[in-house]
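Holo prediction. Input below; ligand is adenosine-5'-triphosphate.
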Amino acid sequence: MSQKGTINVAVENIFPLIKKFLYSDHEIFLRELISNATDATLKLQHLARIGEAKVELGEQQIEVKIDKEAKTLHIIDQGLGMTEDEVQKYINEVAFSGAEEFLEKYKDTAKDSGIIGHFGLGFYSAFMVADKVDIITKSFKDEPAVHWSCDGSPNYTIEPADKTDFGTEIVLHISDDELEFLEESRITELLNKYNKFMPVPIKFGMKTETLPKPDDAKEEDPAPTQEVDNIINNPNPAWTKQPADLEDQDYKNFYRELYPMQFEEPLFNIHLNVDYPFNLTGILYFPKMTQDLNVQKDRIQLYQNQVYVTDNVEGIVPEFLTMLRGVIDSPDIPLNVSRSYLQADGAVKKISSYITRKVADKLKSLFNEDRAAFEEKWNDIKIVIEYGMLSEEKFFEKADKFALYPTVNGSYYTWDELIEKIKPTQTDKDDKTVVLYTSNREAQHSYVNAASDKGYEVLLLDSPIVSHLMQKLESSKENVSFVRVDADHIDNLIKKDEDQISKLSDEEKESLQKTITDTISDASYTVQVEAMSSDSAPFIITQPEFMRRMKEMQATGGGGGMMGFGNMPDMYNLVVNANHDLIQEIFNSKSDEKKASLIKQSVDLAKLSQGLLKGEALTDFVKRSYDLIK
Ligand SMILES: Nc1ncnc2c1ncn2[C@@H]1O[C@H](COP(=O)(O)OP(=O)(O)OP(=O)(O)O)[C@@H](O)[C@H]1O
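Structure of the complex:
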């Protein structure tokens, strides 16, 4: 008997609202309907397993079909189906109240764009793309099939149907302004985006498969082919398996599956698997990291029970780990809330700290198991680790055992090893241990040499955020300071008590200082006459650590950099070695002209060695040098 009914009075508002609010995200209807079909299939499998459903289950699948002529899109499952009463209850009442609840929530978060695609709007999302929706369903229970139909108005019809197999077919009569959803390529794209790893096989059309040639086939015979179902998903992706059942190659293959356009192999992976106090599985990969911190295209993907949700995991995964790749699957992450709420949510906080801990533990075990291999990877992973040390206190503590400090000679020290090694030689008169480093061994070559000659260890620290990390280490470790090799002349980098005897008196130094300052007449240089070893260079340009680091920190952003330093001009010290023969010559020279020309030429040489001589000054210098030697 055919019946008519009215869904609910308030529903009159709902369809236009669905269309309006969800305008940009119409495509999620397919994910919602396939999720329902998957649930129905898994529920029936469960009922059969526990003996409540007396049915023979074959290889169950879900089929998606396009009928271009009829302008319909079909989603067909072999799940538990619905009786007429159930259609009344679940579709007319439950599904509707779900949609209403959704709209209630959505109104409050309308400003928080980006979250919309994460809502489970459910069955009614079909009306975003269809003028009319049919449900033809037969329950696994021995009851007649029913046909429900609704054209988007609050009125529906329900009548008997002649379907004989259990399961449900949803027919969407695609509206004229949504015809893209009748295109095979568009549906393929959506299935690949949202359903690639769903747990029930999804068939979309047929494909041709090449079979092996029979033994007696001739060389020129074409290989036989056959038409098979085109299954678009992998129902058993690697992250749903136990780590013990997976080989290294399986992880690599899965990486390929996730990012088909990614040709670089991952460095290593971390399998996440926890069921208490929250449910979470997943695999994270460390990709090869380069210096540029650009946002990457291949990002961590978030799934809920194998249904793709988003690749924006901000707030769920700690920020420093968003540079990784891979998959996280958790039914416990609330998605129908705004991101700011997400960050305050207790379960999400626990998830985030669990992930941090797992990553730290994995790094620690890689370090312990094969230190040489870990050192080899260091350059590619250091940005993530250094960034983590800066942003997560817990990670900072754990990383102390495996974060490495490489030297220009190719040794890699942990923090404790480094301090033990340099403490005897690099502790200054105030009992501070001075860690020397270079950010660019080519550009700072002569300074690195001077330090190495003195028996000092020089670290090579060249990540973009390293100035922030040094600041952090200086404040959390006792009595250490970082100094770049060109921050001062060698005798001053690590101040010891041994004073050099000066060949010039204090007054003589002062007068020389004035002469040089007047001659170079450049406010960005502070002239400093010092008694140094006569072997050291006569003029050395240095850049004081503090100012330079503050400027760098401001340039790379984040907390710590002091306001205002970014706009300051670069400031240098011009260190003059009072004990060098050339300085003696300049000082004793009777002719002012000679003095000036010696000073100019030598200061230009010092600038040249620091890469600071450019443009017109460089041209003048070259010309002057030719004049001198001709
Ligand atoms: N393909 C199907 N087979 C059997 N029952 C279905 C099917 N699709 C929907 N249903 C029934 O209709 C109900 C409502 O579906 P709807 O998608 O609106 O909400 P939901 O699946 O419960 O929640 P969600 O908002 O997460 O999608 C389901 O709970 C289920 O009982």
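The radius of gyration is 36 Å. That is the main takeaway for now.
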